[in-house]
Fold this protein.
Amino acid sequence: MEVLVCHRQRALVQLGRLHAEQHGVRVRVAHRPKDVLPMARAQRPNLIVLGSDLKDPSTEELVSSLQAEPTLAGVEVVVTKAGLPDLGTALRKFRGPIS
């Protein structure tokens, strides 16, 4: 299982990454919003988690671009408004048990 995360609060990203990796989830981090789409195309993660405070491009534009990308069909996109979600719980909701 692989997750791509882009969030402005890097400390939260690191905490979420540590927690997810304890559950066998590989976490990739895009440090800039403009890196999300190319990284997602190249890695095709199971889940993409974005912070809603992303401004370049706007979160809505980025989500639209991700959803319109044919190579990412079926990849779930989650937008958070505050801290990162419990990635293990989020993955179970989308894909069933973590494998």
Observations:
- The first strand starts at residue 2 and ends at 6.
- Residues 10-22 form the longest helix (13 residues).
